[in-house]
Design brief:
33% of the residues lie in helices and 26% in strands. The chain is an alpha/beta fold. α3 packs antiparallel against α4, α3 packs parallel to α5 and α5 runs parallel beside α6. The structure holds adenosine-5'-diphosphate and magnesium ion.
């Protein structure tokens, strides 16, 4: 699970500061997908940067799986992020020289002893399992140039799950995709969130996806509020 309490984040802006996130609170339980929608510049990516411990907020607390991330130092946050948080961004950030399965195992190569062949074999098994779960079992040995935009985003989602994260943070994953492939990525995220029990925060610019999520919030000028009027929501 992830819990944000009264989080505020500002950035320097000339002689004053700009408030990117303004006293935002959010709770996402295991297996839930919470959506955030809002205009460009409203603070959505900033909120995700705080939720994923990439940026420490000016004030407020972030709790991930019972660990108060905002009490940790830089190294502690990096370790928490490495072990408990999966990140999916709009651009898939794949390395052009690596195959799909290598995109998933490269982090393990960097963090585990290369001589531990059993650990490497286990990482490869998990990577192949995850590629199968995202529908790319037959594409494990393809490089990004041989994959479509939708397939690259699937590799990105699989890679985010390698560390068995408690929290999945996803920023506009469909913005580079056409309608149908975008909908398929949302379906995939909902299914994997339920199956892997992650607490998933999904920023999207497409309102049509919101009714399928556990709850939806809108963000305006850094302030977060629950959307009660979305089509298909209980009580609407
Ligand atoms: N690293 C940064 N330095 C200064 N200002 C930033 C930085 N990141 C974001 N901002 C500002 O914070 C506000 C929110 O930006 P952002 O979180 O990217 O919004 P969104 O993702 O909703 O488009 C904007 O005014 C943006 O210019
Ligand atoms: Mg953004």
């Amino acid at each position: 699970m992830i819990d944000l309490q009264d989080v505020t984040l500002t950035f320097p802006d000339g002689t004053s500061r700009i408030t990117a996130v303004d006293h935002a609170s959010l709770h996402v339980g295991a297996g839930e997908t919470v959506g955030i929608i809002g205009p460009s510049g409203s603070g959505k990516s900033s909120l995700l940067a705080v939720a994923s411990t990439l940026i420490a907020p000016d004030s407020g607390t972030v709790t991930i799986d019972g660990v108060v991330a905002t009490d940790l130092d830089l190294a502690g946050r990096a370790e928490l992020r490495r072990t408990r948080v999966g990140l999916v961004f709009q651009q898939s950030n794949l390395l052009s020289s690596l195959t799909a399965v290598e995109q998933l195992t490269v982090t393990n190569e960097l963090t585990t002893d290369r001589r531990r062949r059993s650990a490497r074999a286990a990482a490869r098994r998990r990577a192949l399992q995850l590629l199968d779960e995202v529908g790319l079992a037959a594409d494990a040995d393809k490089r990004p140039a041989q994959l479509s935009g939708g397939q690259r985003q699937r590799v990105n989602v699989a890679r985010a799950l390698m560390s068995r994260p408690a929290v999945l943070v996803v920023d506009e994953p469909t913005s580079a995709l056409d309608q149908e492939r975008g909908a398929q990525i949302i379906d995939l995220l909902l299914r994997l969130t339920a199956e892997h029990g992650t607490a998933t925060i999904l920023v999207t610019h497409e309102p049509r996806f919101l009714p399928r999520l556990t709850t939806a919030h809108s963000m305006v000028d850094g302030r977060l509020s629950e959307q009660s009027d979305r089509p298909g929501a209980p009580g609407s």
